[in-house]
Amino acid sequence: MNLVTAQTFNDSVSAHLVKTRLENEGIECFIFDEHINNVMPIYGQAVGGIRLKIKEEDVTRTKELIEEWELRPFLNQSNETLTCTSCGAQELYAGFKSFKTSLGWLTLAISFLFMIYPFYSKTVYRCKNCGEEMDLNN
User: Fold this and answer.
1) Within 34-101, where are the H helices?
2) CB neighbours (10 Å) of residue 29?
3) Which stretch of 56-60, 76-80, 87-91, 100-104 has the lowest confidence by average pLDDT?
4) Is a pLDDT exceeding 70 seen at residue 103?
5) DSSP class of 48
6) Domain residue extents for the chain
7) For 62, what's the count of Cα atoms within 13 Å in the CB-facing half-sphere?
8) How far, in Å, CA of 97 to CA of 125, rounded?
9) CA dihedral over 31, 6, 133, 102, signed as positive or negative
10) For residue 22, what are the CA distances in angstroms to 16, 29, 51, 91, 135?
11) Which of 43, 47, 77, 119 is most buried (most C-beta within 10 Å)?
């Protein structure tokens, strides 16, 4: 049985969500390097992140499912499609970590100075078309 990396992740929650979705579709999958990434997140870059692996024969179906999930528009609490406030596009990145505020820049400077992991970032949506960052939850 040959295993192929279907997708890589920075956090185990996202990896397990996709794994659960794929298993619900009947695709057997496995998560690699989860523990080293959880224990020492800085080593995550060295090992290539958390890898979701699937059987070689399931590659086509898995790619179709992941692409379908990524193309779905994001909805707010009223089930309305979220759109970019600048260009009106519906193609957004969710969970984008932004440091564009003054507190974000201060955090980055302190993080580099003391060689620590950044302790503040704002989670926003980012438009795939124009790059605008928006907090659409308010």
Assistant:
1) 34-39, 44-47, 59-71
2) 21
3) 100-104
4) yes
5) T
6) 3-71, 73-138
7) 22
8) 9
9) positive
10) 10, 7, 14, 23, 30
11) 47
